[in-house]
Amino acid sequence: MKEIDWANLSFGYMKTDYNVRINFRDGAWGELEVSSEEYLNLHMAATCLHYGQEAFEGLKAFRGKDGKVRIFRLEENAARLQSTCQGIMMAELPTERFKEAILKVVKLNERFIPPYETGASLYIRPLLIGTSAQVGVHPANEYMFVVFVTPVGPYFKGGFSTNPYVIIREFDRSAPLGTGIYKVGGNYAASLRANKKAHELGYSCEFYLDAKEKKYIDECGAANFFGIKDNTYITPKSTSILPSITNKSLMQLAEDMGLKVERRPVPEEELATFEEAGACGTAAVISPIERIDDLENGKSYVISKDGKPGPICTKLYNKLRGIQYGDEPDTHGWVTIVE
């Protein structure tokens, strides 16, 4: 294997040695299979290709200073995948089978887990698709669960630094009672035009308001939003927001730090009152927000006055990363150590 420049990894795909697969046929999940093939053999009439029966997850494995490999909150990813399966009528993979697949693929590709001091990690991508051939619009009766891994660097090139965001009203990521709470590919396809526009305007990402009234903060690109003010961690509550495992973890850590936590509708004008704010998710952990521009209304909500991450965002970021890498005590039992 050619030498990997661990410190300069992008957030992209790199071929690794193995992936793992489990097929659902005749009403039951089969045995786990190991493959070194990067391609899937799919029928052209598979439901994932025509009717969007496709779900995925994202989680990471980290190599600690002690040499141990830790996977962060994999049971939460299993539960969220099960929720998505319920939402789009797919066969649910039990938590134990999910865990079996994740641990197996990480062990098989251990040489691709970046060293501790690089700040990089092993990204784990579980994928579940409907594979049976049919033309009528109804759930598949066969499914394939696949997990591949790839070493990644920071999601944003600048790492933990503030970024500018822009509110875009002309596109919605998802409807209030649609698939926004599920991790399905269609939600991401629906965000591509808005994301392209945001980048063309010079912003790191787009900001969505609620699709129904265009009054409340919804999601921040493909991440959850949170704001800090008056010693309170505030994050939007909505029926179209994906429940972020990172956000859930940050809420707990904020409580541990003595902050109040509020999950409620956040009107756009409240952005002017936040002392700090961030976008959070598996890829970046926290991307601190410098400002949020509302170009249509000629407003700019400047959150970071000095252009630097705020003290609470920094403390939360360091605490969460510390748990992931084994530098901080895992008091909540979030980490699974790969034996």
What does this structure look like?
This protein is α+β, with helices and mostly antiparallel strands. The protein has 2 domains: 19-152, D-amino Acid Aminotransferase, Chain A, domain 1 (2-Layer Sandwich); 163-325, D-amino Acid Aminotransferase, Chain A, domain 2 (Alpha-Beta Barrel). Helix content is 22%, strand content 29%. The chain has 7 helices and 18 strands. The chain has helices spanning 47-50, 74-87, 95-108, 185-189, 192-200, 245-256, 311-325; strands spanning 19-25, 28-29, 33-35, 54-56, 59-63, 69-72, 121-130, 143-152, 163-167, 205-209, 217-220, 224-229, 232-236, 260-264, 276-281, 285-294, 299-302, 335-338. The strands form 2 sheets. Strands 1, 2, 3, 4, 5, 6, 7, 8 and 18 form a 9-stranded antiparallel beta sheet that branches. Helix 2 (74-87) crosses helix 3 and helix 6 (245-256) packs across helix 7 (311-325). Belongs to the class-IV pyridoxal-phosphate-dependent aminotransferase family. One of its GO terms (biological process) is isoleucine biosynthetic process. Its cofactor is pyridoxal 5'-phosphate. The modification N6-(pyridoxal phosphate)lysine is found at residue 183.
Structure summary:
The chain is α+β, with helices and mostly antiparallel strands and 339 residues long.
Helix and strand arrangement:
Blueprint: E1 19-25, E2 28-29, E3 33-35, H1 47-50, E4 54-56, E5 59-63, E6 69-72, H2 74-87, H3 95-108, E7 121-130, E8 143-152, E9 163-167, H4 185-189, H5 192-200, E10 205-209, E11 217-220, E12 224-229, E13 232-236, H6 245-256, E14 260-264, E15 276-281, E16 285-294, E17 299-302, H7 311-325, E18 335-338
Parallel strand pairs: 9-10, 9-16, 13-14
Antiparallel strand pairs: 1-2, 1-3, 1-8, 4-7, 5-6, 5-7, 6-18, 7-8, 10-11, 12-13, 12-15, 15-16, 16-17
Cofactor: pyridoxal 5'-phosphate
EC number: 2.6.1.42
Protein name: Branched-chain-amino-acid aminotransferase
